[in-house]
Amino acid sequence: MRDDNKYTAPALEKGLDILDVLSAQDHGLTQIEIARTLNRSVSEIFRMLVVLRRRGLVDLDADSDRYYLTTKLFEMANRTPIVARLTVAAEPIMGQLANATDESVHLVVRSDENVLVIGQVDNPGYNVVSIRLGARIPVWRTSSGRVLVANQSPEFVEAFVRTHPHPDGVAPELLLRELATVRAQGYEVLPSYVIKGVTNISAPIIGHDGWAAAALTIPYVDRHFGGISIEACRTQLTDAAAKISRAIGGRVEAHPSQTAPTAP
Question: What pLDDT, in 10s, does the model give residues 62-82?
Fold first, then answer.
């Protein structure tokens, strides 16, 4: 078997480490802070930052001497064929859904053990629950993530659950049963893990291979006046997810071989 560990590119790895560190900072870091975080010398970090700035991936705030990520990485990610197809197909449908439900809508894909927000449409009303584009959130802390994992092959689901332990210590067998339920019903409705009083409604967007390529989610807010019921909202969201699935060539109906994951 090929051993990729024997192939190294130290300079590239240092540059990627810097991008990774800056991606987790809202207000950037100074050169010294980056060096300290990565346990590197200031001089080698400086050389990396010069190159990254030249390529437009990071920039420097002259007032605070803090480096921050530009939007170039996000723009590059959005040129990825699947992301580009998804956002183009989803944008008008998400707009219609937000107007019909008076709720915000966001579109996410999975990125390793996280979900990445690639689309966001605010509702037309005064009260908006929004999430910034490019946000990365752990899979187990979102309904979107659970929906994305649940709607993969049984082999993938089993492996993911076993290799990515739940942060609250939920047993793998219980997670598998929960994901099987999500898969069987075609959506998940669950109180937000982050915001009290918000209920997440999420449904998969199915790609041409029959598995989830993305998830469409509404952070549902129940209003005293106006608005629609959570059940009506769920129906409209699942219909919208099916439309987007068809728009990207997805098979909305599950293939007979796509059996739901079950706990051993």
Answer: 889 999 998 777 767 656 667
Token look-up 């050169």 returns 31
C-alpha distances in angstroms, 23 versus 69, 104, 219? 7, 25, 24
Residues of the chain with CATH 1.10.10.10: 4-70
Q: Are the CB atoms for 213 and 86 separated by under 8 Å?
A: yes
Q: With 0.90 as the threshold, say if the pTM is over it.
A: no
Residues of the chain with CATH 3.30.450.40: 76-247
pLDDT in tens, 170-203: 999 999 999 999 999 999 999 988 888 899 999 9
Q: Does the domain spanning 76-247 belong to CATH 3.40.980.10? A: no
| Contact of 23 with 136, CB cutoff 8 Å | yes
